[in-house]
Amino acid sequence: xxxxxxxxxxxxxxxxxxxxxxxxxxxxxxxxxxxxxxxxxxxxxxxxxxxxxxxxxxxxxxxxxxxxxxxxxxxxxxxxxxxxxxxxxxxxxxxxxxxxxxxxxxxxxxxxxxxxxxxxxxxxxxxxxxxxxxxxxxxxxxxxxxxxxxxxxxxxxxxxxxxxxxxxxxxxxxxxxxxxxxxxxxxxxxxxxxxxxxxxxxxxxxxxxxxxxxxxxxxxxxxxxxxxxxxxxxxxxxxxxxxxxxxxxxxxxxxxxxxxxxxxxxxxxxxxxxxxxxxxxxxxxxxxxxxxxxxxxxxxxxxxxxxxxxxxxxxxxxxxxxxxxxxxxxxxxxxxxxxxxxxxxxxxxxxxx
Length: 353
Hints:
This protein is an alpha/beta fold. It has helices spanning 5-18, 22-29, 42-54, 64-78, 134-144, 163-177, 179-182, 196-211, 233-237, 246-256, 296-308, 334-350; strands at 34-35, 38-39, 86-93, 100-107, 114-120, 147-151, 184-194, 219-222, 285-292, 313-322. The longest helix has 17 residues, at 334-350.
């Protein structure tokens, strides 16, 4: 992908800002932000200030097209240098609706028979791609010493709910059936994702366990969207000024699950499966949340529901960070530190290769 000159310039500005001494970074970012007993990390506050200055947003004027373009460009601003050595191979996943594209990431020196993470990118089910999350997949692969299969599931509004759900389950089934071809151990396959991808990962785990047969052995859920039926307090507390907004979530859901979709369907709101007693027997989970995230409360409610159902779960709130922190691993240190914790949980769950 050719990087447009304006994006190159913005990238240079971001790198220069983060290279400044702390007192100058603080002067640019402004006084500390404290909300709900939490203090926003300077790394997060600075990127928010730079985003406001450049008029960056998740949902751009003009809707779907410009928003997708902005997401694709964003990794060149905050993703950092390409992580190597990681081998990359294109994969086609057959299913009834047509072949799904995917990318297999294998960190250098990893032996065959490793663990594998089926990864589903974030972006509100509308934006984002394997390319926009290339740096995230590489980071998880290298830090956790596992293979990562990053999936290009179908996006809304062209394909609405439950198309992405069907794709996610098809991707897991493919990974299990073709584990040997992928260099992986079929008994060490995890499902994971961030934001909307975390939603799809949670739904995939539930669907696989309910039907019987092969199921993931671990869930890696980063700031997942898990309940489209209600607004919790964090939607109000952090619904404006922290990049992902309350209005953004409404827009994404309207694209992905327009009327007459039932927003209490557990395939859209996996937290509500707790009301049906459908969480027992799910694989262990790592649930990462961010303190300054509109989705914080629902993610933490899901972790608690899993725990109440007898599922082994580690809930880790990053109290000083914002939604999407895994995407910012190329700037500052706090984003990388938080994402490294998730990668370590995955490494321990699947065993180092």
